[in-house]
């Protein structure tokens, strides 16, 4: 399969994934099932592509050689975001730090890395190969898509849009999904328990607890 065919498959698959999110999250209320399907499908695709072309890991951003360099750039933003979450949560009285945040802090970076792969590697990365597109356009489109994925929650849409602007900017210059995935997961978890007063642990694992 040629690169162009891979791009078409990836774009169509990402669109189906987005539609699946709204179906399983907002209509069927089957978050855990959707996440399991997501990891099974995209995990198989990633494994297959790497077996065919091992060098694609660097192109996608599954790399460790620039981990520290990218971390130094993302860390100040992450610390500032955490402080902002605590301030906003304190002002609007939505601080709800529960022990549930511990497993979310452990598990969410895995989901965050997969989300960053879909958005940064497949959306922004494929758009970057279109030579007539400016980086600003890629950043705006990718960030708008990420924000729209969190409709209808206003705070989540705003937060993920801002987060994606910074992450896409970093990714287009120094690709490292591990750094972005970890911070995506940790910041997302803190954002849920401070700003939007939601408990993703219960939302995802409640079918297993009942």
Describe this structure in words.
The chain has 210 residues and is mainly alpha-helical. The termini are far apart. The chain is built from 9 helices and no strands. The protein is 80% helix and 0% strand.
Summarize it:
By secondary structure, the protein is mostly helical. 80% of the residues lie in helices and 0% in strands.
Whole-Å distance between the termini? 45 Å
Q: How would you spell out the order of helices and strands?
A: HHHHHHHHH
Helix tally?
9
- Supply Rg: 17 Å
Give the SSE map.
Elements: H1 3-27, H2 31-52, H3 56-60, H4 67-91, H5 101-128, H6 135-148, H7 154-173, H8 177-194, H9 200-209
Helix pairs in contact: 1-2, 1-5, 4-8, 5-6, 5-7, 5-8, 6-7, 7-8
């Amino acid at each position: 399969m040629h690169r162009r065919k891979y791009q078409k498959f990836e774009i169509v698959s990402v669109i189906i994934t987005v539609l699946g999110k709204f179906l399983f999250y907002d209509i069927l209320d089957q978050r855990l099932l959707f996440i399991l399907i997501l990891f099974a499908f995209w995990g198989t695709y990633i494994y297959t592509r790497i077996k065919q072309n091992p060098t694609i890991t660097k192109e996608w951003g599954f790399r460790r050689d620039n981990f520290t360099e990218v971390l130094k750039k993302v860390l100040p933003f992450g610390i500032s975001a955490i402080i902002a979450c605590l301030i906003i949560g304190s002002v609007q009285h939505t601080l709800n730090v529960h022990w549930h945040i511990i497993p979310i802090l452990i598990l969410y970076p895995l989901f965050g890395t997969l989300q960053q792969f879909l958005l940064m590697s497949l959306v922004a990365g494929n758009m970057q190969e279109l030579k007539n597109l400016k980086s600003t356009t890629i950043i705006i489109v990718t960030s708008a898509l990420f924000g729209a994925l969190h409709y209808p929650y206003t705070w989540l849409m705003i937060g993920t849009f801002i987060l994606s602007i910074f992450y896409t900017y970093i990714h287009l210059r120094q690709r490292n999904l591990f750094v972005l995935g970890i911070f995506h997961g940790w910041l997302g978890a803190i954002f849920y328990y401070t700003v939007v007063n939601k408990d993703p642990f219960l939302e995802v694992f409640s079918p297993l607890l009942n």
